[in-house]
Amino acid sequence: MLRLLGPIVLLCGSLHAETTLVLPFFNHSKTPNLDWIGESIAESVRDSLASEGVLVLDRMDRLEAYRRLSLRPGAELTHASILKLGDSLDASTVIYGSYEMTGAATAQSKGSVRIEARILDLKRTHQGPAFSETGALEDLASLEVHLGWQSLESLRPKTAPPEQAFVAARPPVRIDAVESYVRGLLATSAEQRHRFFTQAAPGRTLFAALFPVGEDLLGAERLQNRGRVVPAGRPDRSSLSGISVLPGFVALLQRRFCRRRAGFSTGRGGHAAQ
To answer: In the CATH scheme, what is the code of domain 17-170?
Structure first.
């Protein structure tokens, strides 16, 4: 009898595993053209947590919850709506925040951005202190990585790696590649996704290797591209040798792709990513 109880206890524990929901950060810059930054921050923080073993709810789950609760994607949510959203997805914690431009753009710079994040513990109904990152908009990807480490350190202070090691494992990505990639995720048609992902990964070989990754993140197993079915497989690093236009971008997409592929193989493609 005791032998039977062991698996049952383990199963119950897995069913109640703590999960984290990362929301798109709210745009306080009053510039609608910068709305994509909020999704970019959420994608990066989610990737940072999942790559370290934290159970993070998938973007598609979040969008479905928005639909069920009649919430408009991209709109700033009230505290009550954040609670409802987290509760509807059985999340233990919710990471959310905002960003604003703190310095004007010049001929040499796109300006500076300040990102502020908070972690809401739904089990204890407790909101932790705000933490932030500030820097040049061109360094957005690096700011997001540092914010991801702060989130990880807050959630798992005993197991989080040193910040220096965490950052070193995530090479910087150019902002133009990040913007095109995120705009591709937000695109509402296959044609738009095709255009933005092509911009994110210029060059025929690079595009062919990375486009299935973006499509896979949207929940597609295969991509119908101009009448030709492209099998969704892991991007081949060997085909990317010598390309330096997107430092860190390939590694970033590979991590996200492998998480999604693991989800499909276990039949949980639309659930928490690990």
So the answer is: 3.40.50.10610
